[in-house]
Design brief:
This protein is mostly beta strands. The protein has 1 helix and 10 strands, in the order αββββββββββ.
């Protein structure tokens, strides 16, 4: 069994600075679980274009307030503490943070580690 503490991840190569966000990657592909788990801070006042064409992601907000706009229908989904959204259709979206938001993110397939979004808000496909 593994026990991972956030304090063990902060400041390591699993602590990724993404500009609008800071992703502390607790479980990665190398851990062999079939998914990755991240504790991510989305910074207040930011808007991030995201489109995970190669991944499914569930995002559970445990602190803060903001909204997700799904771009296929321009629907605005308010997101606050104790709310989960699941990008079950690889939904292209804008993530807007009113306050700092703290999110627990689960990715299938798992992130390998160093990924940051490309100019289209995509993480590359893992070809291993
Ligand atoms: C909620 C979200 O998608 N934020 C962007 C960063 C990403 N979740 C990550 O790599 O942790």
């Amino acid at each position: 069994m593994k026990v991972v503490k956030l304090t063990d991840i902060i400041g390591t190569e699993q602590d990724i600075e993404g500009g609008n966000w800071n992703s502390r990657r607790l479980i990665l592909k190398k851990d062999g679980m079939g998914y990755s788990v991240h504790d991510t801070i989305i910074r207040a006042g930011t808007e991030t274009h995201i489109w995970y064409q190669n991944h499914l992601e569930a995002v559970y907000c445990i602190e803060g307030e903001g909204e997700v706009v799904t771009l296929k229908d321009n629907k605005v989904h308010p997101i606050s503490k104790d709310t989960l959204y699941a990008l079950d259709e690889h939904d292209e979206h804008l993530l807007r943070a009113k306050t700092d938001m703290r999110m627990v993110c689960v990715f299938n397939p798992p992130i390998t580690g160093r990924e940051v979004h490309d100019e289209n808000g995509v993480y590359p496909v893992d070809e291993d």
